[in-house]
Amino acid sequence: xxxxxxxxxxxxxxxxxxxxxxxxxxxxxxxxxxxxxxxxxxxxxxxxxxxxxxxxxxxxxxxxxxxxxxxxxxxx
Length: 76
Hints:
With about 80 residues, this protein is mainly α. The chain has helices at about 10-25, 30-60. It is elongated, with a radius of gyration of 18 Å. It starts with 9 loop residues before the first helix and ends in a 14-residue tail after the last helix.
């Protein structure tokens, strides 16, 4: 079996992960397919976590190495 490719983006990884979860929750996958889906899900989660950590680092650099609490603009 070929190794699954790296996701094209965070959004595509999330979409694939959601599909895997839906398939697994349906309970219709054979054991081998369930194990493969579980492993792929773990890979996708790690990829997403890395992408979020990278985004956080970029934000820290842009904001002078400190994250600030999100404060939505007040409606006028």
